[in-house]
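Appendix B. Worked example

We walk through a single record from start to finish. Start with the input: the chain for B30.2/SPRY domain-containing protein, Oryzias melastigma, length 387.
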Amino acid sequence: MPQPSGWKDTKKHEPSKNLQENICPIHDEVMKMFCRTDQKCICYLCSVDEHRGHDTVLAAAERTERQRDLEESQQQIQQRIQDREKEVKLLQQEVEAINHSADQTVKDSEKIFTQMIRLIQKRSCDVKKQIRSQRLTEVSRVKDLQKEFKREISELKRRDAELKQLSLTEDHSQFLLNYPSLPPLSESTHSSNEWTNISPTVTHVDVLLRADFLKYSCQITLDPNTAHRRLLVSEENRKVRLMEEPQSDSDHRDRWFQVLSRETLTGRCYWEVEWRGKFVYVAVAYENIIRSEYDSRFGFNDKSWALSLSPDKFSFLHKEIQTTTLARVSSRVGVYLDHTAGVLSFYSVSESMTLLHRVQTTFTQPLYAGVWLGHAVGDTAEFCKLK
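Next comes the structure step. The output line below is what the pipeline stores for this chain.
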């Protein structure tokens, strides 16, 4: 079929062009040789002429060797591609792991904060109840005193009217006759400072984290040689119980009606006591506290500090001065001592820490933990094992 004028057959001319490039321009011979020295294709005549003495080989042999090098390079590249693809996959897995970990951490933190919010809300409710209870107690005391004082005022006014009427009696004999019939003024049934002891403010309640105190936890064990004969010490000397009958016949010089710890307490210490009964005293005391007199009771001298616990109230005692609060206390109380700073704090331990009483003083000697069970058979106190 005839081609249009000017049509170029590229398929026909392309092999001719390649063939022309393989012809030596000098000798008009096919270049079947390769000069490694000059890195170029040459013909046979070139190899014995201007390329004499050069490193020459057949072009096919050079192609075979370079093809082998090319394949090795391809293998290396393909291997590197596989390695990088594997690393990219691992990195993607790492990204997914990071994202999963972050998501899980967010969920865990949300759960923790939700629990903390619920705990704070519960503690807030408990604190409000305690505040209302204290308010009712103090207001009731005030109203009772108001009622008593009003009754006394009425009685005094009546007495004043009788005295005024008697003073206006003109008849001397009648005056003298009626005078002895007037009873003497009775003493007030309330001391002048009783109403001043009413707290004008509601006790401040601290809500703290127990973990903050556990950093200073210490293990307390009791010294049986200091225990009263009716006190049964058990549970590796951590528990004490008031019994009806004497538990020991020995008469140790350190024995008294309370019990002290073996360990001396200095620096920062924290311990917890599980209690049960009508009256349990949790205390700290100096070793040289008097042991033979009734005033050696915890809290009734200047050598001991005590928290008295009962089902419906608690009291702090020191030097016979007692501060009582009408409120229920958890069955577990915590005691925090900073001997150097002179700080002694008692806490009600439940889901959180509620401050019961705090003392700021100066401790001049090492202290010992103590327990006093002196009211009801079966009262118990146990020093807890803290992790």
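Two observations about the output. Residues 152 and 158 are 10 Å apart (CA to CA). Confidence is low (pLDDT under 50) at residues 1-13, 191-199, 201-207.
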